[in-house]
């Protein structure tokens, strides 16, 4: 676990007037270790010492601080992961049948294709993009 990650998360929490409590640290460590978007039930299974109400509240605070990203899914279970600038740029494959969420890292070639498409949108609209999120919603291989 790199100390740099904790230093950055602590700074972001300070920015929104929050402290880096031991519970928040435990959540960040869990998300860093699993390297996979987790739902709150996933978190409760992986760390039996955390209480549901505090997990919900602490993830909301970490999301507000910009340390955690909430993946928007089609089911009731939101998924959480470390913010992309703390890990690496990637996309999501969201299954609307089982609610599963998989990370997908695109090839540099595919990212260049996306960048070209974004330039087209930017030229047409005058909107200045800073980064992008591209999540696919559909049916996963297991459910197909
Ligand atoms: Zn599925
Ligand atoms: Zn992800
Ligand atoms: Zn991308």
In short:
With 144 residues, this protein is an alpha+beta fold.
CATH superfamily of the largest domain: Winged helix-like DNA-binding domain superfamily/Winged helix DNA-binding domain
Reading off the top of the CATH hierarchy, the class of the largest domain is best stated as: Mainly Alpha
Oligomer: single chain
What is the helix content?
40-55%
Strand content: 15-25%
| Structural domain count | 2
Indicate the CATH topology of the largest domain.
Arc Repressor Mutant, subunit A
The residue ranges in which pLDDT falls below 50 over 5 or more consecutive positions are none
Cα shape: globular
Question: For the report, how would you describe the main beta sheet?
Answer: 3 strands, antiparallel
Q: Kindly report the average pLDDT value.
A: 93
Helices, by number, come to: 5
Secondary-structure element pattern, one letter each: HHEHHEEEEHE
Q: Any overview of this molecule?
A:
The protein is of the alpha+beta class and 144 residues long. It folds into two domains: 1-87, Arc Repressor Mutant, subunit A (Orthogonal Bundle); 89-144, Dna Ligase, domain 1, CATH 3.30.1490.190. The chain is 44% helix and 16% strand. It has five helices and six strands, in the order ααβααββββαβ. It has a three-stranded antiparallel β-sheet with strand order 1-3-2. Strands 5-4-6 form a three-stranded mixed β-sheet, with no helix packed on it. The model has no long low-confidence stretch (mean pLDDT 93). Bound molecules: zinc ion (3 copies). One zinc ion binds at residues 37, 81, 90, 92, 103.
